[in-house]
Please model this.
Amino acid sequence: MTDVPKHIAIIPDGNRRWAKDKGLAATKGHEHSAQYDKLKALLVKAHNLGISYLSLWAFSTENWKRSEPEKTVLFRLLGEVIDNLKNEAVEENIRFRWLGRRDRVPDNLKAQLEELESLTSDCTGLGLQICFDYGGRDEILRAVNKAVKEGKEVTEKSFSALLDTADIPDPDIIIRTSGEQRVSGFMPWQATYAELYFSPKHFPDFGPDDLQEAVEKFSSRERRFGGG
Model:
């Protein structure tokens, strides 16, 4: 491959449909996707492919509409993932960042996420971003409010610095699993020139080989950035 994306962002869709297809409770799809071995395999593949940043959308601002039992399971699963990452991230030189709102997440989970950010702040290897309580419009509104509060003239560069992804390059490719062909407001400012790749597989079945296939498709595309 001659052109490898620097930043891959994934919308991991289809957990509940995967579970339904197998006659299981919806939460079983989340549990399968949140297995640490699955995440680690994707991280290893991303590293081996030369990817510098990998972002995963774990919980959107709209996901608060889901049932209390399902949200409880999602919070528990993310906490378990963070605990596992804490044991390996520094050793593997993984820099972890949390993208999204910080005022609504349960206190214990917020503490876990912020602790992992702090522990890995000096790491210089693969950048792993978990988007939790994240919505593209919400992120832009929060950035606008910061700009208004500062009372300064806003440019593209200064506005980008107010976003959750301030020190992270824009995604080169956004991958969405489960066959849905939309981005649902994911990183709308940052994804202006991102390539889109839609996998028919539900996320529980999406693995390292599928990630490589997406990167190979990206490598075969010609990106002109409006230059004709």
